[in-house]
Amino acid sequence: MNHVELSFKLNGQDISIQILPNTLLVDLLRDRLGLTGTKTGCRQGECGVCTVLLDGDPVNSCLLPAVKVAGRSVTTIEGLATEDGRLDIIQERFISEGAVQCGFCTPGMIMNAKALLDREASPSETDIKKAISGVLCRCTGYRKIVQAVKSASEAKE
Amino acid sequence: MKEKTDKKKKVKILTKEKVDLQQLFKVPSMGLAVAGQSVARTDARQKVMGTLKFGADYAQEKFLHGKILRSPHPHALIKSINTEKAKSMPGVMAVLTAEDVPGRNGFGAIIPDQPVICSDKVRFVGDGVALVAAETEQIAQQALERIEVEYEILPAIFDPRDAIKEDAPKIHDKGNLLSYNKLRKGDVSKGFAEADTILKRTYQVPFLDHAYLEPDMCMAIPQPDGTMLVEGPMQAPFTTRRNVNAVLGVPINKVRVRQVPMGGGFGGKEDSPIDLGARAAVLAWHTGKPVRLALEREEVMLQTCKRHPMIMEIRIGAKKDGTLLAFEGVIYDEQGAYASLGPIIPPAGGSHIHAMIMMAGPYEIPNVKVDAYLCYTNNPYGGAMRGFGAPQVHIAHEQLIDELAEELGMNPIDIRRKNGLKQGSATATGQVLDQSVGLIDTLDACAKAFNWDEKYRQTGYIDKARSKRRGVGIGMGWYRTSIGINADGCGANVHVHEDGSVLLFSGITEMGQGSFTVLPQICAEELGVRLEDIRYVVPDTDIVPESGPTVGSRSTTLMGNAIILAARQVKESILAAASEMLDVPADRLVAKDRLIYDTENSVNSVTFKDAALKCMQTGRRLIGQGWWTPPKPSLDPETGQGNPYFVYTFSTHMAEVIVDVETGEVDITDFVAAFDIGRAINPRLIEGQIEGGVAMGLGYALMENVVVDQGYIQNKSLRNYLIPTSLDVPDTRSIILEVENKYGPYGAKGIGEMPNIPATPAVLNAIANACGGRVRSLPADPEGVFRAIREAGGPPDK
After folding, report:
1. What is the pLDDT of residue A55?
2. Preceding omega of B102 cis (within 30 degrees of 0)
3. pLDDT score of B30
4. Three-state SS for B212?
5. Mind telling me how many Å the CA of B599 is from chain A's nearest CA?
6. In terms of residue numbers, what domain contains B529?
7. Which label site among B58, B429, B514, B785 has the fewest CB atoms less than 10 Å from its CB?
8. Model-level pTM?
9. Is the pLDDT assigned to residue B18 strictly greater than 60?
10. A and B: number of Cβ contacts within 8 A
11. Tens digit of pLDDT for each residue in B45-69?
12. Fold topology of A4-79
């Protein structure tokens, strides 16, 4: 199989990379670009821990051929904090509200929360539950995650 | 968070809810500075940034990729294996069969009855028949397809009751009854003779999967000195090590096992790292190269242990007033193909004996008889899963108590208050509970927060169309801290440095539960420093003392005590140095918040750092080692009587549900869970355990079920093995009570496993209360509830 050149915006930076056309976005991010904050739990689009933002919308990167992001903008968990280590408010509230346990679903949860808060400034708890319902968490029972997102939305206002 | 206390009852309640429990609880604070605080997790920042490296995040270039050829049959003889075609493929570095295992061809947490590579026969779909290591995962996968195996299919067994019939085909040479255990307290025939009401029921639960989000993986990396390094997400590095060393045929000190961050465990990663560790190590031993063995989700479902299915037959006898007189139970506990964590480790270790001990519930019953059969079958195998035999039997006894209450016309809360364990009660094993028994306190606190009395009166149809009914239910429970074996010791090392910084060495692993935060909190509290002064060294068998496995809700209590003992050795030096520096006797000094001061003149102080430097300069000991073993467990093998576990956590859950009687759908509309946990070292982390545990318990009640048909799992993905999502769980309200455990660090006892246990029966009882149909064979999915309603003669009229 021949390599193709893929150009897109990743966490605000323009990049170009030679890839095999059947490469999945998650493998490009994790194996080629070393961005292992995006996890894989099922590789079937069921668990949501591989969620990244594509032009601001949450997508399962395990289902998306990387060539589909050509010319578009991808944000991963690594793109949320500033370079000097200042966390996004959602990340901060995940810590302070105790929304993190094993941490394996955390990036996927935070990316879904980010997409929600970017389009809806003050979501209801039901909105939040719906927005994160595509990500499975086996540790927390979701309550503190919902509280963290709520708290982040209130802090943003 | 509000704190309310009760001096007389020595119970403290921590709750965020607007509930007035002031009359019940009031106690003075212990004056703890770091322990007892809801500090943020030490690993949270890395986790929210995505910078924490899990096993699968390690760069893969330097590794060979391992793959396992699995049996396609539940029970068969291996007639021949031809690996030539696979071996000749470019990029394939090793294709191994049974004779290639250098040491013992068997592993297991308790009994090494599972072959690293099967030699003569396979016992379940998923058994390992050959191992491959190749340059890429793809090549390894292709190599598997070129291995030719000839099988002779054997008759197989899929029901534990069939397994122990005399003419049953033998799955293992020693027969299919892996363990038979019995419990005899009092005289059940006398108890039943005196009973006014006797009820007999059978309850059944299926295989469950842990469904941790991180698939299992393991890395084996040969070291230049001949040592084998094994790394992976794991709960039990020491158990893994003692299997890998035997499989390689080398002494224990030639294997080094290191935990990498774990994306959930729930008991499952006690067992699977033994399997993957042994197999990866064999491949690494043969190739001399690092080998990575990482499972896909489907392989996780196929290969790793599950929660044991059980068939539980029970008879209970009571007086008219609800006093329990006799309990008789039979457990058919399905082990599946291999022993894993099922069989007994005397006196009271292993999941099977634990189920037997817990079966009569947290009740004082004078006459109890339990017969428990642990049977091999050709299904996947049962191992440890959050509760270790206890969730299953709680589903039985808690439903039975409700069915009995209904028969007697009693409120389910009253029958529990009457018979529930209290201080001085004797359990089914005859253990007299002399301390830390807060069961009834949890019942009272839960009822008050839930508003049980009112809600219990308001059940029935809630809509004009008469399709939806509301109901409420209780689940009460108990769970041990510790694992009931003599070898339950825990070691910790504490190193203080001359700048006041501290290294804490322990073998307790982090799987999300928070031990890397809670244990440093205890260390900081004892030394009188801040949490950020402590660095917890990641468990590594070359570096940390033997600590046993991270299981049995034992970490905070057992390791906490070991850490306190270790810290005290160093603190003795620190106080001696400070005494010299301040010219004050050491017994007048207190260490707190990085300062050591004279209790009679608090201005007279020296910093912890300066005292540590002084210790260093004067040759005083700055290294402490603590070792703590719980009070000796006992259990008579003939009678099942004794003191198997030294302390128990108690809990009551209450659920409100709405059942659609036309579709069988269940919606949980309110949930309160109250716990007596002795002492909360980190209340917010405990809430996290509660909320997550309850969600898991609700999954068990309503949807989770590994469907196994003739040995073949039908739902191997998260698409059809369903676990609760954010839309399925209620906003669980947690209540934390503290009835001090005199053997625990600052009075603490375990919490990890307790929360998911009573949640399941609370929901099942609420469903029955709502619609009249009782689901005795799980799960209570819409189909199950619908069927139960029909069996009950349709939905109630009123």
Report:
1. 98
2. no
3. 64
4. coil
5. 35
6. 490-628
7. B58
8. 0.96
9. no
10. 171
11. 999 999 999 999 998 889 999 999 9
12. Ubiquitin-like (UB roll) (3.10.20)
**Residue A44, both tokens:** 């079937």
Residue A71 token pair: 């010319």
Mutate to test the interface with A, among B39, B46, B47 (most CBs of A within 10 A): B47
Determine, for residues B262 and A102 on separate chains, whether the beta-carbon distance falls below 8 Å: yes
| Closest CB to B512 among A41, A139, A142 | A139
Rounded CA separation B303/B507 (Å): 26
Sheet with B177-185, strands from edge to edge, namely B177-185, B367-376, B324-336, B310-318, B197-205
Measure CA of the first residue to CA of the last residue in chain B; give whole Å: 42
Query: Is the CB of A103 less than 8 angstroms away from the CB of B732?
Result: no
- pLDDT at residue B14 is higher than 70: no
Instruction: Please state the domain count of chain B.
Output: 3
Q: Do the interacting molecules here have an ipTM over 0.95?
A: yes
Classify residue A68 by burial, with Cβ atoms within 10 Å: 0-12, 13-18, 19+: middle
Q: Please check the confidence at residue B25 and state whether its pLDDT lies above 90.
A: no
The CATH number given to whatever domain includes residue B110 is 3.90.1170.50
* Residue B589 to residue B566: CA distance in whole angstroms: 19
| Confidence check: pLDDT of B17 > 80 | no
Helix (H), strand (E), coil (C) string for B433-486: CCCCCCHHHHHHHHHHHHCHHHHHHCCEECCCCCCEEEEEEEEEEEEEECCCEC
Domain coordinates of chain A in residue numbers? 4-79, 89-156
pLDDT average, residue stretch B35-42: 95
8 A C-beta contact, residue A73 and residue A7: no
| Residue B509, both tokens | 């692993």
For residue B139, give both structure tokens: 């090549």
Does the beta carbon of A102 lie under 8 angstroms from any beta carbon of chain B? yes
Looking at residues B709-722, what average pLDDT do you find? 98
For B432-452, the pLDDT digits (tens) are 999 999 999 999 999 999 999
- CB–CB of B763/B670 below 8 Å? no
Query: Is residue B420, in this structure, part of any structural domain at all?
Result: yes
* Percentage, residues of chain B above pLDDT 90: 95
- Please indicate, yes or no, whether residues B641 and B617 belong to a single structural domain of this protein: no
Is residue B71 in a domain? yes
Looking at the DSSP assignment, which residues form a beta bridge with residue B221? B229
Closest chain B C-alpha to A96 CA, distance in angstroms: 6
pLDDT tens digits along B374-428: 999 999 999 999 999 999 999 999 999 999 999 999 999 999 999 999 999 999 9
Q: Are residues B430 and B476 both part of a single domain?
A: yes
Shared domain check, B561 and B461: no
- Are B254 and B322 members of one domain? no
- Tokens representing residue B542 in the block: 């070359």
The residue with tokens 């070359």 is B542
| pLDDT tens string B194-226 | 999 999 999 999 999 999 999 999 999 999 999
Q: Judging by beta carbons within 10 Å of its beta carbon (0-12, 13-18, 19+), is residue A67 exposed, middle or buried?
A: middle
Q: Residue A23's closest CA among A44, A4, A49?
A: A4
Q: Does B37 touch chain A (CB under 8 A)?
A: no
Nearest-neighbour CA in chain B from A128: distance (Å): 9
Is residue B80 helix, strand or coil?
strand
